[in-house]
Write a structure and sequence with these properties.
The protein is of the alpha/beta class. The protein contains 8 helices and 10 strands.
Length: 239
């Protein structure tokens, strides 16, 4: 499954951007003690290759739940999640883990870099886990660090970098696998305005250059203004 998704073309034969991820009639509830909390109520959503799509809405509206479902971290109660046009509901945990490793990238609010690793080692780590040969890893890491403007910082550790630089490392790490979909959870929330603008420009440029789709949960109006599409949620439904 993961190999098939990795080869999904960026454009369909008809010239339309290929569907990367879909939620079809998805419902999800959570239990908190005796209480049942509805997180999603029949959500339909499609994300296309090369698209920067923002999910907005107040806390508890369902943004993080959509990220968790599209990122194969959670499963819906009802409805279907598809990646590359193929349902993933029937996959066991081992297959889901491999698909998440090979076809998805993740960018977090707090960067989630390994502090004892250098910048290059952080970006290299997903390729190492995937068993990519060392020579190819070096080439791909160098290319990504050049693309995000951090090639001169390859030997530095994260604590020597600014917040914006750390988020650039996180973006490079997410994209070095050449994923079809990047899941980003509040990627600018911990950045000042000037740094956030730089990171947003970088995300948009890399998204369009590499054909990866970005699915982003955010409260940041600066980010939504740069996205190709904005989807608002309220109480588990699309507005």
């Amino acid at each position: 499954m993961s190999a098939i998704l990795a080869e999904t073309p960026i454009r369909s034969d008809a010239g339309r951007a290929a569907l990367v991820a879909e939620l079809r009639g998805v419902h999800k509830t959570y239990r908190l003690g005796q209480h049942v909390i509805p997180a999603l109520r029949g959500v339909d959503l499609a994300v296309r290759s090369g698209e920067l799509l923002a999910l907005t809405g107040p806390s508890g509206s369902g943004k993080s739940t959509i990220l968790n479902l599209a990122g194969l971290i959670d499963r819906p109660d009802r409805g279907d999640v598809l990646l590359g046009g193929r349902p993933v509901g029937g996959l066991d945990e081992s297959a889901r883990t491999l698909l998440r490793r090979d076809a998805l990238g993740f960018v977090f609010q707090n960067f989630n870099l390994v502090p004892v690793m250098t910048v290059a080692e952080n970006v290299d780590y997903p390729l190492f886990i995937a068993g990519v040969p060392a020579a190819e890893r070096r080439e791909r890491v160098a290319a990504q660090l050049l693309a995000v403007g951090l090639h001169e910082h390859a030997a530095h550790r994260p604590d020597a970098l600014s917040g914006g630089q750390r988020q650039r490392v996180a973006i490079a790490r997410a994209l070095v696998k050449r994923p079809r979909l990047v899941i980003a959870d509040e990627p600018t929330a911990s950045l000042d305005s000037a740094t956030a603008d730089q990171v947003l420009d970088l995300m948009r440029e890399r998204c369009h250059a590499e054909g990866a789709a970005f699915l982003i949960a955010t409260h940041d109006a600066r980010l939504t203004q740069r996205c190709d599409r904005v989807v608002a949620l309220l109480d588990g439904r699309l507005e």
